């Protein structure tokens, strides 16, 4: 992680400076941003770090996120839950459309579109969500911008 912090200026994506790294955990944002040692590449680690930081950003903009989720519900009346396709519940799947959109946009800014696409296409979780981000990027982006959630 330190080499990534040395390599990239991540200052606009840091919303909590408390980060733990643990073996065998599923990365998560709260209560402490926690990364796993299981990442396959630096790009995977960077993507995960950005994803979890964006959750913290979403907490700061909770009302805006709630409004975006309403629009995502209209855009996608039915979403997958669980398994490798969706998040743990319906609300979390909608929330992750915002999080994963900004994660992808951030990765494109940092490592370029080709590498960002590779990371998103090879995710082993939230696969439906990442597919929507890739296939409907402009449409999801309009909702993110509409609700003043863009970074």
Please provide a written account of the structure.
There is one protein chain. The mean pLDDT is 93. The two termini are 22 Å apart. By secondary structure, the protein is mainly α. Helices cover 59% and strands 5% of the residues.
The string of secondary-structure elements, in order, is HEEHHHHHH
Structural class by secondary-structure content: mainly alpha
The average pLDDT is 93
Task: Please report the distance between the alpha carbons of the first and last residues.
Answer: 22 Å
Name the helicity range: 55-70%
Number of helices: 7
The total of beta strands comes to 2
Largest sheet: number of strands, sense, barrel closure: 2 strands, parallel
Determine the strand fraction and express it as a percent band.
5-15%
> Can you list the strand order of the major beta sheet?
1-2
State the shape. Answer: globular
Radius of gyration, whole Å: 14 Å
Unreliable residue stretches = none
Secondary structure blueprint with pairings:
Blueprint: H1 2-7, E1 19-22, E2 33-36, H2 42-60, H3 62-75, H4 90-111, H5 113-121, H6 127-135, H7 137-146
Parallel strand pairs: 1-2
Provide a short characterization of the protein structure.
By secondary structure, this protein is mainly α. It contains 7 helices and 2 strands; from the N terminus they run H-E-E-H-H-H-H-H-H.
List keywords for this structure.
globular, single chain, two-stranded parallel ribbon, 7 helices, 151 residues, mainly alpha, 5% strand
């Amino acid at each position: 992680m330190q080499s990534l912090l040395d390599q990239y200026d991540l200052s606009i994506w840091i919303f909590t400076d408390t980060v733990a790294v643990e073996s065998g955990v599923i990365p998560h944002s709260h209560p402490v941003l926690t990364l796993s040692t299981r990442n396959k590449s630096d790009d995977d680690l960077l993507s995960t770090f950005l994803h979890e930081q964006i959750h913290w950003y979403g907490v700061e903009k909770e009302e805006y996120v709630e409004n975006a989720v309403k629009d995502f519900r209209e855009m996608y009346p039915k979403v997958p839950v669980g398994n490798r396709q969706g998040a743990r519940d319906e609300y979390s799947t909608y929330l992750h459309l915002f999080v994963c959109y900004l994660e992808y946009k951030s990765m494109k800014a940092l490592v370029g579109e080709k590498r960002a696409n590779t990371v998103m296409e090879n995710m082993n979780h939230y696969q439906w969500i990442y597919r929507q981000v890739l296939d409907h990027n402009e449409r999801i982006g309009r909702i993110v911008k509409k609700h003043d959630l863009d970074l």
